[in-house]
Amino acid sequence: MSIKQKVFFLNKTLKMAGEVYFPEDFNAEMKYPCIVVSHPGNGVKEQVAGLYARLLSEKGFVTLAFDASHQGESEGLPRYLEDPTSRVEDIRCAIDYLVSLPYVDEERIGAMGICAGAGYAINATQTEYRIKAVAGISTWDVGDSQRNGFAQCWTEQERKQMHREVALQRTREARGETPLYVGYVPNSENDFTESTPVIQREAYEYYCTSRAAHPNSHNKFLFSCNDRLAAFHAFDLIETISPRPILLIVGSKADTIYFSQSAYDKANEPKELYRIEGATHVDLYDKPEYVFPVAEKLTCFFSENL
Q1: What global pTM score does this model have?
Q2: 106-118 per-position pLDDT tens digit
Q3: C-alpha distances out from residue 301 to 98, 105, 158, 239, 276, Å
């Protein structure tokens, strides 16, 4: 069994909340490879990020899962802001914290994330050279989905309409109106329609039922941050990560597989796109028959490259 410790670190003036997981035989006099784990949009550290942090600590790594700024137990106003620039900076600040710890080997730091967290981890690695290897699970590029819609189904007119609505909402809020919050996923099965994607149905079950619901995960984000999301390009400089390695893990049945394929196609070697047969996007979050093979693949990847 691994050991877990609540920790706090700073992103500028914001107090960030995280949990460090230690190997069972942890010795503070030794130096350990370390992995920063970033949660999905709508997630908190106690869910899938914490699960993988724990599993990797049991394999000998020190790991850190943390709540994004403006979310979970971390500080930041307005609440539930999903700002890609802030989320990438969160990862950098998590590394700032780790390199201050005497038992962390600063030459052996890796990063990984799940869903949107994977896109942020990859983006951070493009210019954060303290990250020596990066992995994404069920990777999602929030910029692509907010520019083009899920599965890139939006027309140019629909894209422009979204931007117009964001602009109008920002004006309303600037004049004192209440901020508008929207959900990541449907709030109940009654909200499902024939066109509701599989990922939305699965994510509802994960985040909004006893399967993985957490009191700090509220299924809402600030609508007006959609402009910042749309301006974000997770993989713009992904080729510059080379010669540091990239691992992309995705379920073979995931309706989001195109994000991982896009990242793989743009990246330079060394890179790997690893498919978990029969799994969907959210299956990799907590189903043992998929999570344990993913954890083994991550263990091999980080052991070889850190």
Answers
A1: 0.97
A2: 999 999 999 999 9
A3: 20, 17, 41, 19, 15
